[in-house]
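Module 6 notes. Inverse folding takes a fixed backbone as the condition and produces residue identities as the prediction. Think of it as a translation problem where the source language is geometry and the target language is the twenty amino acids. Below is one complete input and output pair. Work through it position by position during the lab.
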């Protein structure tokens, strides 16, 4: 894989702006301000809903399936469309796609607050997710293109710290709004922020020339991704309810297993693929992508699981639950902001391994504390460690993946990174929502999502805690595999540099 060092030297020799040119950095910081601000909008909405979900489920008297799909519909749609919009951004411009995404996300938020039923809310979440995909697939690419390579770690750390800020504000705000203003404001609160982001983005983001004639949209590849993910998600989300031997579960898993390799083969034969399979041949990038996927699975349900735990098992209010999950966001914010300065002394690859090791420790602590009903202080320590692990891994891994790529591959490479990362969140969330209630009778599962299982009786709570044990064991196993994958990626990168 060609690095950027030689290109930078040639640019300087030709009289191009130096890496610390004031105008270059001014544009970079303006771009970062738009991206970070908008990322907080989308991040706050998701983290707020994790805490407010029981309130929403009680309002609609939603079944466990409907409550699950209020979350899963967004994740699935967002994941399926990430690569599509990554390609469209390469074709028609990241600025246009980003501003369109801001507008669509804001409109989707308005519609979600007007939903008359749980399944209408699921449908409006699809619209919101389409806008979110336009934002997410372009964010890191905009930052990477704007910043000089030697400052990229700093810019990426601040960009990803914006998600930590969203996680910091979102749960508390979600609990407060759900309890005092009503569930609709969990979606409506970010509408004025979205409008402000749209106005500032139109002013601050620079247009970048594109080469439309040389690229095309891979519709067959898009359809294959949709089929594979939908089939797998339907199977995983219903496996514990219907049983692993049910035709729907077997058929969904089989469909995914057939379509995914077919998709990868097909992508290697088309001129403008959604996924550049050649990038997988660069081992540091390929294993880094796999680590991103596995890390997302292991981290996806921490806040959701503990927000449900605090409300369903301990019986606290949404506001208190939102405050109690704050250690994740606080620790992630500190770790994300520290990752840039740390990368000046420690390689990004080493930090990814460190973050994953901390995640394993965090999940072990949470497993022991939740299933053993230990003091809440132990839970808070585990949540803090989970935040540190996530905050160290995400910006460091993004930097390690993106820093060696040429500008013309940033769009598709970032889309690939986000596709694997978002797929991990989809798979992890589907499995978690299914497994955590698997030890309960079907008729009692909706009370978990409504946060009222403790009112049923102590035996029901004990059954739920057994489900928590199964869930954390699975998350720990995936986290250990993530550590191994990150070590392989780091070793491959070191070998490439020698």
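Target side of the pair, the amino acids:
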């Amino acid at each position: 894989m060609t690095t950027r060092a030689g290109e930078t030297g040639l640019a300087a020799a030709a009289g191009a702006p130096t890496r610390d040119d004031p105008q270059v950095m001014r544009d970079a910081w303006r771009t970062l301000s738009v991206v970070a601000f908008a990322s907080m909008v989308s991040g706050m909405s998701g983290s707020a809903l994790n805490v407010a979900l029981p309130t929403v489920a009680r309002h609609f008297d939603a079944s466990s399936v409907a409550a699950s799909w209020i979350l899963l519909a967004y994740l699935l749609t967002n994941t399926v469309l990430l690569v599509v919009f990554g390609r469209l951004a390469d074709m028609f411009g990241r600025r246009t796609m980003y501003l369109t995404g801001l507008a669509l996300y804001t409109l989707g938020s308005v519609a979600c607050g007007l939903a008359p039923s749980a399944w209408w809310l699921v449908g409006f979440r699809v619209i919101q997710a389409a806008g979110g995909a336009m934002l997410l697939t372009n964010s890191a690419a905009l930052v990477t293109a704007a910043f000089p390579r030697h400052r990229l770690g700093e810019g990426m750390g601040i960009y990803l710290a914006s998600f930590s800020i969203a996680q910091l504000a979102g749960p508390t705000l979600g609990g407060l709004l759900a309890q005092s203003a009503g569930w609709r404001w969990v979606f409506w609160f970010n509408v004025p922020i979205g409008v402000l982001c749209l106005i500032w983005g139109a002013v601050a983001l620079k247009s970048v020339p594109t080469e439309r004639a040389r690229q095309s949209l891979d519709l067959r590849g898009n359809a294959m991704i949709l089929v594979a993910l939908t089939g797998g998600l339907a199977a995983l989300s219903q496996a514990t309810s219907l049983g692993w031997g049910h035709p729907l579960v077997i058929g969904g898993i089989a469909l995914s297993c057939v379509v995914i390799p077919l998709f990868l083969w097909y992508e290697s034969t088309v001129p403008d693929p959604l996924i550049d399979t050649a990038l997988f041949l660069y081992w540091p990038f390929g294993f880094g992508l796999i680590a991103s996927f596995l890390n997302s699975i292991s981290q996806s349900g921490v806040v959701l699981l503990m927000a449900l735990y605090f409300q369903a098992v301990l019986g606290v209010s949404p506001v208190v639950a939102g405050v109690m999950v704050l250690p994740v966001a606080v620790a992630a914010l500190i770790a994300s902001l520290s990752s840039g300065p740390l990368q000046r002394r420690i390689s990004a690859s080493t930090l990814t391994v460190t973050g994953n090791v901390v995640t394993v420790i965090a999940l072990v602590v949470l497993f022991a504390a939740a299933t053993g009903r230990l003091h809440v202080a132990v839970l808070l320590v585990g949540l803090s460690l989970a935040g540190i692990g996530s905050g160290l891994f995400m910006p460091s891994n993004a930097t390690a993946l993106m820093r060696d790529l040429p500008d013309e591959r940033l769009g598709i490479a970032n889309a690939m990174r986000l596709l694997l990362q978002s797929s991990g969140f989809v798979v992890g969330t589907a499995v978690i929502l299914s497994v955590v209630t698997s030890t309960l009778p079907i008729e009692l599962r909706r009370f978990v999502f409504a946060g009222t299982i403790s009112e049923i009786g102590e035996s029901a709570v004990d059954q739920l805690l057994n489900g928590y044990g199964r869930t954390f064991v699975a998350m720990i196993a995936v986290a250990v595999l993530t550590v191994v994958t990150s070590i392989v990626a780091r070793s491959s990168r070191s070998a490439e540099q020698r």
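Reference fact for the lab report: Confidence is low (pLDDT under 50) at residues 1-19.
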